[in-house]
Amino acid sequence: QVQLVESGGGLVQTGGSLRLSCVVSGTIFSIITGGWYRQAPGKQRELVASISSGSKTNYADSAKGRFTISRDNTKNAVYLQMNSLKPEDTAVYYCNYAYGSKWATNWGQGTQVVVAS
């Protein structure tokens, strides 16, 4: 069974940075698309960024220019570098994976990000 373990969240001031990490086990990591979602209180979970097996990246408009997703196939890891953080970035961040365009339905525990104004 695939397992996802996220880390790196925390409390940061507006304008600060955080780097989230996700280690994926139980699958052939190099062939999957990796992604970061977030869910703020009272809102639906949304896709923030994704990176394909060929390292093609896509970002939500809210993340463009501030967030960078990357992957390290030697470590089975996906990262999300978040800069210029805003209070509206406050959410629980989850990583996920996809085979092709089909995202998995199992999730990790997530990592909380709080951006103080």
Structure write-up:
The strands form two sheets. Strands 2, 4, 5, 6, 9, 10 and 11 form a seven-stranded mixed beta sheet that branches. A four-stranded antiparallel beta sheet has the order 1-3-8-7, with no helix packed on it. By secondary structure, the protein is mostly beta strands. Helix content is 0%, strand content 53%. It is built from no helices and eleven strands. A hairpin with a 2-residue loop joins strand 9 and strand 10 (102-103). The chain starts with a strand and ends with a strand. The radius of gyration is 13 Å and the shape is globular.
Quaternary structure: single chain
Determine the N-to-C terminus distance: 40 Å
Arithmetic mean of pLDDT:
96
Strand runs, count: 11
Rg, nearest Å: 13 Å
Beta-strand share of residues: over 45%
H and E string: EEEEEEEEEEE
From the helix content, strand content and strand pairing, which structural class follows? mainly beta
Would you identify the regions where 5 or more consecutive residues have pLDDT less than 50? none
Helix content: under 10%
Number of alpha- plus pi-helical segments: 0
**Shape, per Cα inertia axes:** globular
Largest sheet: 7 strands, mixed
